[in-house]
Specification:
about 400 residues, alpha+beta, tRNA-splicing ligase RtcB, 7-stranded antiparallel beta sheet, globular
């Protein structure tokens, strides 16, 4: 298979293979990748996707295969964060000229941001697409987790199921290249996933200090198979990833029901549906070896597997089919990737800039979302061009409604 990566050797470590031709990569991200490549547990090489950028704990847009060990901070605290999208039988002609009511209906149906509804379980327990069925699938294992780690019981676990969150989490109504309507959203394991990630990251750091493990970066502390917390972390992170997947399904059902109340049309959804993580760890076999693959800001792209690569509030998104590229550990990017911090975006761009960049999209155009403005992200076309050997584009989506967390 033709390759499109740039390979960099790392003294004292494994190589880094970067799918970054034509896209910027800041020095801090390269430093983080180098630190990961120097860990003795890393297998074969580290892969960097075209949306790669500096992250907390480990580089966003990195794929790190490890042998008999896992790095909790590489998985991060938004465990199981990812995307869900589904095609409908609706077309552009079925949408009203004024999309404001549709956006408002979605905002009422799905708790998002820091609104009171996002924190009030009573207000949402009776909403169609209730969390009850989903929580029933999660509760038994969660009860076991809380026996061993009682403080997890105090998190907003069930409360946050069916809620979007803040930051770059979003819900969109999109049109594909043929004019069909898609619903798409981005979210993860919310507060309980954050609590699990934070707790085990700290336990890994304590273990490393106790055992005098020499690390290029303290954030890269890891659990080895057979160690005190390894099994508990695998169990907890697996549960959080299941929570994230079900969370997206609950919200998607609510989005579909909300659209029906506004459009007054009978339509089918889930004709083509994709639900994929992009912050997670998975046990897989690569180059003949069973390893733990941590994708932090990367999507599984096995041969024939469907995935989602979103752009930004004003850019195209893509439904893709994986090519199973062995050098990328069958992975692709999880989005466009930031080019600057949230603080820098707020300093650099004005409301006028943001409104111009999101023209034609029914979305928030206030100062609180300037950190999510399209110009804060890499050019999605350049990102896609850099990974033609990783995925094929199946559908090209352009949003017409965007709800931000």
């Amino acid at each position: 298979m033709e390759t499109n990566y740039i390979e960099e050797e790392v003294p004292g470590g494994v190589p880094i293979k970067m799918w970054t031709r034509g896209v910027p990569v800041e020095d801090e991200a390269k430093r983080q990748l180098t630190n990961a490549a120097r860990l003795p547990i890393v297998f074969k090489h580290v892969a960097a996707m075209p949306d790669v950028h500096f992250g907390i704990g480990a580089t966003v847009g990195s794929v790190i295969p490890t042998f008999k060990a896992i790095i909790p901070a590489a998985v991060g605290v938004d465990i199981g964060c990812g995307m869900i999208a589904c095609k409908t039988t609706l077309t552009a002609e079925d949408l009203p000229d004024n999309l404001g009511p549709l956006r408002s209906a979605i905002e009422r149906a799905v708790p998002h941001g820091r609104s009171p509804g996002a924190r009030d379980p009573g207000a949402w327990s009776k909403v169609p697409g209730s969390v009850d069925t989903a929580w029933a699938q999660l509760e038994p294992e969660f009860t076991e987790l809380t026996r061993d780690y009682p403080k997890l019981a105090k998190t907003n676990n069930r409360v946050h199921l069916g809620t979007l969150g803040t930051g770059n989490h979003f819900i969109e109504v999109c049109l594909d290249e043929e004019g069909f309507v898609w619903f798409m959203l981005h979210s993860g394991s919310r507060g309980v996933g954050n609590a699990i990630g934070t707790m085990f990251i700290e336990l890994a750091k304590q273990d490393a200090m106790r055992n005098n493990v020499n690390l290029p970066d303290r954030d890269l502390a890891y659990f080895e198979e057979g160690s005190r917390y390894f099994g508990d972390y695998v169990r907890a992170v697996g549960w959080a990833q299941k929570f994230a997947r079900l969370n997206r399904e609950v919200m998607m059902r609510r989005v579909i029901e909300a659209a029906k109340t506004v459009l007054h049309k009978n339509f089918q959804a889930h004709i083509e549906a994709v639900n994929c993580h992009h912050n997670y760890v998975s046990r897989e076999t690569h180059f003949g070896q069973e390893v733990y693959v941590t994708r932090k800001g990367a999507v599984s792209a096995k041969a024939g597997e469907l995935g989602i690569i979103p752009g930004s509030m004003g850019a195209r998104s893509y439904i893709v089919r994986g090519k199973g590229n062995v050098d990328s550990f069958s992975s692709c990017s999880h989005g466009a990737g930031r080019t600057m911090s949230r603080g820098e975006a707020k300093r650099r761009f004005t409301l006028a800039d943001h409104r111009a960049a999101t023209e034609g999209v029914e979305c928030r155009k206030d100062k609180e979302v300037i950190d999510e403005t399209p110009a804060a992200y890499k050019d999605i076309d350049a990102v896609m061009a850099a990974q033609t050997d990783l995925v094929d584009v199946v559908h090209t989506l352009k949003q017409v409604v965007c709800v931000k967390g």
